[in-house]
Amino acid sequence: MAQDSTDSPPDRLSLDPLSDFYDEAILSRGIGIRFNGQEKTSVIEYSVSEAWIRVAAGRSRDRFGQPMTIKLKGTVEPYFEGPAQEEGEASEG
After folding, report:
1. How far apart are CA 77 and CA 87, in angstroms?
2. Is residue 76 pLDDT above 50, yes or no?
3. Is the dihedral of CA 65, 70, 76, 77 positive or negative?
4. Choice among 29-43, 57-71, 75-89 with the minimum mean pLDDT
5. Contact, 29 vs 80, CB < 8 A?
6. pTM for the model
């Protein structure tokens, strides 16, 4: 996957590995979400252009064992929690 030259999170991202919007490389860097001016830690998926987030609805699960979600509409501001790693740094240990 090609890396963006800008240091901004994608327009849409999901924590669900089955989603088309899942990206492990970006998630490993850490994404924070500010929704309507408040930090949200339980966001499962977000879309900046459509102005919504999905959060878990309590401890409810669907028939496949995935958390039930609700969509909240408002201002979404994603940001990276950590700096970008160089390719050489990730393999050193």
Report:
1. 27
2. yes
3. negative
4. 75-89
5. yes
6. 0.79
